[in-house]
Amino acid sequence: MKEKIDRNNIPQHIAVIMDGNGRWAQKKGAMRIFGHRNAISAVRDAIEGSAELGVKYITLYAFSTENWSRPQDEVNALMEILVQAIVDEVPTMMKNNIRLATIGDISSLPEGCQSHLQWGKEETKNNTGLTVVLALSYSGRWEIASAVSEIVKKIVAGDIKQDEIDQQMIAEHLNTAGIPDPELLIRTSGEQRISNFMLWQLAYTELYFTEVLWPDFRKNDLHEAILAYQQRERRFGKTGAQIKSQS
Ligand code: IPE
Ligand code: IPE
Ligand code: MG
């Protein structure tokens, strides 16, 4: 599979909705939390596989704004798994020149998560290979609302004028400022929806859905998604003929 991938057409940024942990566990007659624990090996494969192909950014949807309304035990377990994963994975990230970043309302996370994330980001900040962006307490609508609020604050303070607002300014006030929009979105577990993920950034992203449940996701599945992406014709509103004459 990997040999079939065109190395000159690798997405710079891959976004992933890591879904299906609960169903994976339930199929095994286990608690949902067991599925979350087994998600880590899939995360590792997605990161390693991306780094090997020269992907620059991978954004992993790990916890949405809406996920706060899950049972408290499950939320607590997810936060503990997150802390453990940071402790376990940062040394590997250092070895592989991988940088850790986050998007989302990090201040809403428990203190222990915040300090571990802070540590992981600080440790890896000078790494120049793949950037792993964890979306935590993140949602696209929350992010856009925050950006609007920031911009209005600047207008009120007289730092910018209303007629200076354009798409670029909005993009620069999102959590993803400076990061290119994803070319490819992968969602596992068969659900075909966006679930409030990167609403602004996904405007022209190629969407790829797979039945694989997240804990089963391996490099091979990543390669399959990239191959599917490479079969797509990205037209950005133009005609197919226009696109062909460009290339
Ligand atoms: C994704 O798996 C992980 C998070 C949303 C945190 P789910 O926990 O949503 O698994 P399903 O969709 O219930 O199977
Ligand atoms: C999306 O999965 C959020 C994450 C993967 C973190 P959900 O399982 O929360 O999405 P819905 O509720 O099925 O749309
Ligand atoms: Mg789910």
Describe the structure.
By secondary structure, this protein is α/β, with parallel strands linked by helices. It has a single domain (9-140, 181-246), classed as 3-Layer(aba) Sandwich (Undecaprenyl pyrophosphate synthetase), CATH 3.40.1180. 44% of the residues lie in helices and 14% in strands. It contains 9 helices and 6 strands. It has helices at 21-27, 32-37, 40-53, 72-95, 111-124, 140-156, 167-172, 219-231, 240-246, and strands spanning 13-17, 57-64, 99-103, 131-138, 184-187, 206-209. Strands 3-4-2-1-5-6 form a 6-stranded parallel beta sheet, sandwiched between helices. Helix 5 (111-124) links the parallel strand 3 (99-103) and strand 4. The protein is globular, with a radius of gyration of 19 Å. The structure holds 3-methylbut-3-enyl trihydrogen diphosphate (2 copies) and magnesium ion. The site of one 3-methylbut-3-enyl trihydrogen diphosphate has 11 residues, from strand 2.
The CATH architecture name reads 3-Layer(aba) Sandwich
Radius of gyration: 19 Å
Strand order of the largest sheet: 3-4-2-1-5-6
The CATH topology corresponds to Undecaprenyl pyrophosphate synthetase
CATH class identity:
Alpha Beta
N-to-C SSE string, H for helix and E for strand: EHHHEHEHEHHEEHH
In total, how many domains does the architecture comprise?
Answer: 1
CATH superfamily: Decaprenyl diphosphate synthase-like
Q: Please estimate the helix content.
A: 40-55%
Q: Rough shape?
A: globular
Count of helix runs:
9
User: What's the mean pLDDT score?
Assistant: 98
* Coarse structural class: alpha/beta
Point out poorly predicted stretches.
none
